[in-house]
Amino acid sequence: MERRRFLSRTAVLAAGTALAAGPFQGVAAHLRPDGPRRPGRGYGPLRPVRDLRDGQVRLHLPEGFRYRSFNPAGSRLGDGTITPGRHDGMAAFRGPRGSVILVRNHEVNGPVGAFGDPAAAYDPMAGGGTCTLRVTPYGEVLDSRVSLNGTQMNCSGGPMPWGSWITCEETVNGPDVGNDFSGGDNSRLRRRHGYLFEVPAAGRGRPAPIRAAGRFAHEAAAYDARTGAVYLTEDNFGFPSGFYRYLPPKNPMAAGRLLDGGRLQMLAVRGRPNADLSQGQPEGAVYETTWVDIDDPDPAFTGTPSNNDAIQAVGMQGRAKGAALFSRLEGAIADRGVVYFVSTQGGAPVTQPVPSGFGDGRGQVWAYDTRSGRLRLVVESPGDVALDLPDNITHSPRGTLVLCEDGGGDNYLRGLTVAGELFDFARLEPVPEDDGAEFAGSTFAPGGGTLFVNVQTDAGLSFAIWGPWRDGPF
Q1: Looking at the predicted structure, is the pLDDT value of residue 36 above 90?
Q2: For burial by CB atoms within 10 Å, which of 39, 47, 254, 264 has the most?
Q3: Closest by alpha carbon to 416, among 330, 333, 327?
Q4: Residue 261 to residues 3, 127, 165, 193, 221: CA-CA distances in angstroms?
Q5: Spatial distance between the Cα atoms of 199 and 458, rounded to a whole number of angstroms
Q6: pLDDT band, residue 16 (cuts 50/70/90)
């Protein structure tokens, strides 16, 4: 079930604007649906591989790669807590004696009650949060525990170089807001949601939201060491999304953590108020950008507005000042001064049906240069045969991007090399009882010897994948 893989290479830049040389500089803005220009060799064809945990086939991988699944939903953590489902965003940190510390999100919605100790929860009625595991590079669990509970819809986030994971709530649920699509009763929640929380790799997260970083449908966070800013994506499913940056009152590397009380801003295209970048883009599109301030990043709602109104409250402030429109911004990662982020349903309309919501394409990958302030389109998908609704992303030690797909049918882990090659690395074996299963939370262990990734579903689990990395672009 291999799919065609191709990218054209071109140096054409919109309006004659040139970016500094760097990763993905030669990658065109469009994949071609009619035939390969430059096939991505990657690591070769995929084949079914048995899970070393129990012998079942869960992944299709290239020759020579092996994997072990671990910590499925319903199993017990080392502290006795039942592992929740909906495994999502994740980061890997160096652990003692060659081990790896994983901090992992659980995107649980609704007032279902906190997992773990309710006395330690931010909101004892909310069922999301994070688990921290210490594992070997081969997916053998050495220790595991709850590290943050009582949050909600913990979707993605980002690893921070001072040794923390920023976890993001993809919701604005709370007792002051009407019910969302899940049908849960928000009046049962005790606290407001829609914030960032920090979880140290070596300890428990503080149940204190970073309110100045906004209350909106947060997805991912990426840190820029030069400026100390944290770049944020918004996955506002039914409405336009924005690309944000949070400027903390003190550089987190000096403070040792991300402080509240900073300034939130939203990206705009210079000279083009409310530029709609969710639509199909010209090849090599590059935009000069600026930033607009969000005056009230943590709005206090009265009268219990609808969830649809509340979830747009922060973004509408930015768009009133000319901020750009995107479709469903999800994964983000920073690499050498560039923040790469994904627009899951961005791009020109395609023939294949797309999920309901804002955006009719099959996905875009954008690159924001934090030094020049230029925004560049790296890839726009022409259809699901080439790239199907990219979601979480990370990068390998060599700079190759890893894209987790969130489409219908087969779901892949795909690689996008700095030379402009797109290739399939892994395919998820269909889960008969859950056709919505998808890859999420890809992250390389320090040193790059193991790729960890999750399957997000009610019966979620995590994988450790290892093999002959030097034979290919990761």
Answers
A1: no
A2: 264
A3: 333
A4: 48, 27, 19, 17, 17
A5: 23
A6: very low
Instruction: Return d(Cα 5, Cα 333) in angstroms, integer.
Output: 23
Q: Would you say 233 and 219 are in contact if contact means Cβ atoms under 8 Å apart?
A: yes
* Residues linked to residue 157 through DSSP beta bridges, in sequence order: 167
pLDDT at 22 over 90: no
Instruction: Determine which helix (DSSP H) or strand (DSSP E) holds 303, and give its type and residue range.
Output: none
Report the C-alpha gap between 88 and 86 in whole angstroms: 6
DSSP assignments along 114-168, one per residue: -SS-GGG-SSTT--EEEEEEEE-TTS-EEEEEEEEEEE--EEEEEEETTTEEEEE
Residues constituting the chain: 474
CA distances from 177 to 114, 154, 171 (A): 20, 18, 11
Cβ 90 vs Cβ 103: under 8 Å: yes
Q: What is the pLDDT of residue 40?
A: 64
Domain range summary for the chain, segments of one domain joined by +:
82-387
Q: Where are the alpha helices (DSSP H) in 301-391?
A: 307-310, 313-320
- DSSP 3-state of 293: strand
Average pLDDT, stretch 363-386?
A: 92
Instruction: Kindly report which listed range (11-20, 57-66, 105-114, 241-250) carries the lowest average pLDDT score.
Output: 11-20
**Cβ–Cβ under 8 Å, residues 244 and 235:** no
Amino acid at 422: L
Which tokens sit at 13?
């830049």
Tokens for 258, please give them: 């991300």
Q: What does the block give as tokens for 358?
A: 């804002």
pLDDT at 431: 76
Q: Position 210: which residue type?
A: I
pLDDT at 103: 98
Structure tokens at 161: 């170089």
The string over 270-279, giving b where at least 16 C-beta atoms fall within 10 Å of a residue's C-beta and e elsewhere, is eeeeebebbb
The whole-number pLDDT of residue 5 equals 32
In 3D space, the residue among 364, 386, 401, 395 whose CA is nearest the CA of residue 38 turns out to be 386
Q: What angle do CA 219, 224, 226 make, to 5 degrees?
A: 165
pLDDT band at 418 (very low <50, low <70, confident <90, very high): confident
Q: Contact at 8 Å (CB) between 345 and 358?
A: yes
